[in-house]
Every structure is written in C-alpha cells, then in structure tokens.
C-alpha cells in the first residue's frame, strides 16, 4: 500500500550525512519498507572510518550516493542534492529532506510526503512537540527562543523552526539551491527566503525522537547559533541604526535651532531628522534586510506614506509630552522621543514587512 502511495507521489528523500553510524542504514531500510524508491544520500566529507554505511547503502537500487570530498556543511549537502534532482530527475515531483540518524521516522516522512501531495506549492515541515519531558534542555529552549524571534521579528509562526524534516515541490528546487548559507543557517535562511516569496508553510505533527540526548547531532551550539541568528539580527539592526541616526540628528538640530524656532522646534527638528534617517533606513531595509525585489519607486512611495504618518504621530506625541512635563530641554525631549519612537518602531516594522517591501509578484 505504501509503495503504491509513494510511487504515485514520485517523491525523493534526501539524507545528508556526516560520519554516520549503522543508524543510516536503518533509516534507508525503513524508507524502502515505507515505499520510497528514490533516496539521495549525501556523504558530506565523512572520514574513511565511516564509509561502510555509505557503501552498504549504495548497493541498494533505490539509493543514489553523492559525495563531498571535504565537509562543507548540511546546507551545502542539501543544495548538492537539489541540483542533482534538477539535472538528473526531471520527472521528480517533490523531495523530502530528513536526518539520517533516526530522528525522523519513516512513517513521519511518508506523512510529510502525503501532505506535500495535497499542498504542492507549500513548504511542508515535520514539527516536533517540544513540551515532552524527553526533549533535551538545549533543544527545547533553543526552539523557544528561535520561534519567538521568528514570530516577533519576521512574522513567521512555526512551532518547530529547527526541524530538518521538510518537503518541497520541484518548482521550489531552483530557489532552494540559491538560499544563502552552507551549514545549519541554511535551514533558517530557507524559511526567511520562502516567506518573502510568499510560499505558505504547512506543519505536520511528527514523533519526537531524541536518542542518547541527541548526542549524534553535529550542531555546534556557539558557532552554528551565531550563523543562524546573524541574519535575523541583521533583519532588525537596520531600524535600530536608523533610529540612532534619527535621535542624533534631532539632538543636534534642536540644540542649534531650538531657541530660534521656539514652539516649532520639536516638529521642525523631528521632520528634518526623519528625512535624514528615513532615506538611510529605506535603502538598508530594501537591499540588506528584506531583500525585496519590489519596484524601487513603488516601495519608496509606500515607505514615505508610512513615514509621514509615523513622524506626525511621533512629533505630536513628543510635543504633547513636552507640554505635559513643561520642558524645552533638548536632552529630556530626546529621551521622550526615544520612548515614543520605540513603541512606534514595532508597529512600523510589521507594516514595512507586510506592505511596503512585500513583493506580491513572486
């Protein structure tokens, strides 16, 4: 029954592997038993003493073995497999990426393939339950932190952002070969890139398997966490940098012209500071942060519509707070402005992501 299902789906399974144990062969055997007949195993530069599992897998007609001469990372291994499918499997409909250490059960991989059949234009994610007591501490808390950052910073709501069990249709293979990053950051960058493209995410609940407290994982907490969060930090840093430029410009302008402009000092200095910082912010956001392909003229018009509304609210609130505290001190007004603009930042960030820079043509 399963063989008929998987043959009808015409779905490949990609298993990137580094220094495997005999668990790799158990995974391959389980996939064949589940009905998968096109399994791509990628040896990502494993040592000579780890070659036996690869050799045993390669003897099976259902398995294609690809090799990296040196370790290049999980992301590079996945991209190698996607390129191979594009070049050598033109009839393939989709592919599932899974781990070769037994964390992903054949039944769950099959369920992801079935979900992909029903959602061919989506990225299917096999999601674990991190509330279970057997989940290692670093995995549970790492996922909580990443999920929070994805939700608040990127507008992506996922229960398992770090899962390696993912499915994509053949139409997405070219994009998946262009995702930046060669190691574990590749999987994070994949989510960000596909989200910008408007690709929907479909979650499939899977069994949560952690053998030996996940000791077989090649995830390096410090280096790979930095690689993962680097892009997300960049995603938000532009706005903070521009806010600093805005505050500095406001302080200098108000200190110089505050006495001459009297009651008009706050709104005039707010507008002038925002003109300087907003142009810097727009270009940083479009090119480096959102990576938007939206037409420049359309994006900048939307951006400045948002800016006008935001600076009007900012100037109005700072002016009213200045009256409330009966002060014209440049330092105190700058502090009040920082508080106001911090609140407005979060609202503006979401509007930029979902309206200003969102490219609906993809």
The CATH class assignment of the largest domain is: Alpha Beta
Residue-averaged pLDDT, rounded? 85
Give the termini distance in whole angstroms: 38 Å
CATH third-tier fold name of the largest domain? Spore Coat Polysaccharide Biosynthesis Protein SpsA, Chain A
CATH architecture of the largest domain: Alpha-Beta Complex
The portion of residues forming beta strands comes to 5-15%
Number of helices: 12
Strand order of the largest sheet: 3-2-1-4-6-5-7
Oligomer class: single chain
Ranges with pLDDT <50 over ≥5 residues?
215-221
Order of helices and strands: HEHEHEHEHEHEHHEHHHH
What is the strand tally?
7
Total separate domains: 2
Question: Radius of gyration, rounded?
Answer: 25 Å
- Share in helix: 55-70%
The main pleated sheet reads as:
7 strands, mixed
Helix/strand structural class: alpha/beta
How would you describe this protein?
The chain has 362 residues and is α/β, with parallel strands linked by helices. 59% of the residues lie in helices and 10% in strands. Strands 3-2-1-4-6-5-7 form a seven-stranded mixed β-sheet, with helices on both faces.
Report a brief summary of the structure:
The chain has 362 residues and is α/β, with parallel strands linked by helices. It contains 12 helices and 7 strands.
Helix-strand layout with pairing:
Layout: H1 2-9, E1 11-17, H2 23-34, E2 39-44, H3 51-58, E3 63-68, H4 74-88, E4 94-97, H5 106-118, E5 123-127, H6 137-154, E6 166-169, H7 173-178, H8 185-196, E7 201-205, H9 221-261, H10 265-289, H11 296-324, H12 330-356
Parallel strand pairs: 1-2, 1-4, 2-3, 5-7
Antiparallel strand pairs: 4-6, 5-6
Helix pairs in contact: 1-5, 2-5, 6-9, 8-9, 9-10, 9-12, 10-11, 11-12
């Amino acid at each position: 029954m399963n063989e008929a299902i998987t043959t009808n789906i015409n779905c490949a399974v990609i298993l990137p592997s580094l220094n495997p144990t005999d668990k790799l062969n158990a995974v391959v055997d389980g996939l064949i038993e589940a009905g998968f007949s096109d399994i791509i195993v990628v040896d990502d530069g494993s040592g000579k003493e780890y070659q036996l599992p690869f050799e045993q897998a390669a003897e099976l007609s259902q398995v294609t073995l690809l090799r990296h001469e040196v370790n290049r990372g999980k992301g590079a291994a996945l991209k190698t497999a996607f390129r191979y499918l594009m070049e050598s499997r033109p009839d393939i409909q989709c592919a599932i990426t899974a781990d070769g250490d037994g964390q992903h059960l054949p039944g769950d991989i099959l369920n992801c393939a079935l979900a992909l059949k029903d959602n061919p234009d989506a990225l299917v994610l096999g999601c674990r339950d991190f509330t279970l007591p057997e989940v290692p501490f670093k995995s549970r808390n790492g996922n909580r932190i990443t999920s929070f950052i994805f939700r608040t910073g990127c507008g992506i709501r996922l229960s398992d952002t770090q899962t390696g069990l993912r499915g994509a249709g053949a139409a997405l293979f070219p994009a998946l070969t262009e995702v930046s990053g060669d190691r574990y950051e590749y999987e994070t960058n994949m989510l960000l890139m596909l989200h910008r493209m408007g690709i929907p995410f479909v979650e499939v609940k899977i069994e949560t398997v952690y053998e030996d407290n996940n000791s077989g994982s090649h995830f390096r907490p410090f280096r790979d966490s930095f690689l993962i969060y680097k892009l997300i930090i960049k995603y938000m840093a532009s706005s903070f940098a521009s806010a600093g430029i805005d505050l500095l410009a406001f302080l200098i302008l108000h200190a110089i012209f505050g006495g001459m402009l009297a009651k008009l000092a706050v709104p005039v200095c707010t507008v002038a500071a925002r003109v300087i910082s907003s142009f810097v912010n727009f270009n940083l956001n479009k090119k480096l942060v959102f990576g938007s392909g939206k037409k420049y003229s359309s994006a900048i018009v939307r951006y400045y519509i948002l800016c006008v509304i935001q600076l009007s609210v900012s100037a109005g609130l700072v002016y009213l707070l200045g009256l409330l505290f009966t002060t014209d001190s440049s330092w105190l007004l700058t502090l009040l402005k920082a508080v106001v603009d911090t609140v407005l930042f979060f609202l503006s960030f979401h509007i930029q992501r979902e309206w200003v820079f969102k490219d609906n043509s993809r």
